[in-house]
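User: Earlier you gave me the apo prediction for this protein. Now I'd like the version with NAP bound, so I can compare the two side by side. Same sequence as before, with the ligand SMILES added.
Assistant: Got it. Here's the input I'm using:
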Amino acid sequence: MNLSFKGKNTLITGASSGIGKHLAECFAKDGAKLFLSAHPSEEKALADWAKTLMDRHGGKIWTFTSDLAKPDGPQKLFDEATKAAKQIEVLVNNAGILTYGEFKDVPYENLERMIQVNYTAYVALMRLAIGPMVERRSGAILNVASASAFQPTPMHAVYGATKSAVLHTSLAVAQEVRPYGVAVCSLNPSYTNTPLLNKETSNFPGRLRWFAVSGFPEPQTIAQKGYRAFKKGKLAYVPGPLNAFIHKFLIGLTPKEWVARTGTVIIKPR
Ligand SMILES: NC(=O)c1ccc[n+]([C@@H]2O[C@H](COP(=O)([O-])OP(=O)(O)OC[C@H]3O[C@@H](n4cnc5c(N)ncnc54)[C@H](OP(=O)(O)O)[C@@H]3O)[C@@H](O)[C@H]2O)c1
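And here is the structure of the complex with NAP:
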């Protein structure tokens, strides 16, 4: 498969920072028509980034804000984006949040919010976009999940579970819509140096023992690799050969309870 995004109306969530910000640049370079969205608190950052991309790569970029933690956030965003674009031809579900810590200590509101932003909003936007894509016999969806999707993740149990849900939903739906010419792919990076891990609400401890194995790449590198994999229609891409081997093959062959037990040791601060 070789997907082309030139001239395609592309909606990206969480496009003001981290991986989403750099994915936006990959699409802009290739001449996609961009509809970028961010949390309302990021309105200025998103507008500034859109201007930078227009100066660098030309074309017009539309920006939107929507709080995807709110039940009506995805619908509101989709309505506004389709009003401007007429149709969404490529969807990139990327917005996400993480809270690190023992399950018993994480406030329930954080867990609920994480499920809403990391999974419910992905499903809602996918469901809104995919019908018209199937009708047109063309379209592509990239869901940014995580290497956490492949195994239980102590210290961020619900985060990993939301990512697992995204990965498995993507893989299943990809099979259903392939006959209609629609691609559904997921990008599954290991830990990446983005604001996600530095926010006060994430409670992330800085560096983990696991980084010695996984590395700690910059978001630009992950976005560029993920974008290339998306163009090739890779169904569940894990950047980096060692991370791909560990998460897609080694962990798949190991009983989940062993993986969870090992996880309690390696996902601790270094
Ligand atoms: N960094 C990693 O280690 C890592 C590894 C694997 C996968 N990922 C995944 O990669 C994706 C991008 O994350 P990132 O690492 O690039 O972090 P990031 O820079 O924090 O980007 C996440 C984006 O999601 C937005 N967002 C959060 N809550 C939102 C809400 N309620 N409504 C709308 N937008 C919201 C954030 O906006 P605000 O800045 O306003 O919160 C931000 O723009 C996420 O799905 C994440 O789970 C990250």
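For your comparison, keep in mind: The domain at 9-266 is CATH 3.40.50.720 (Rossmann fold).
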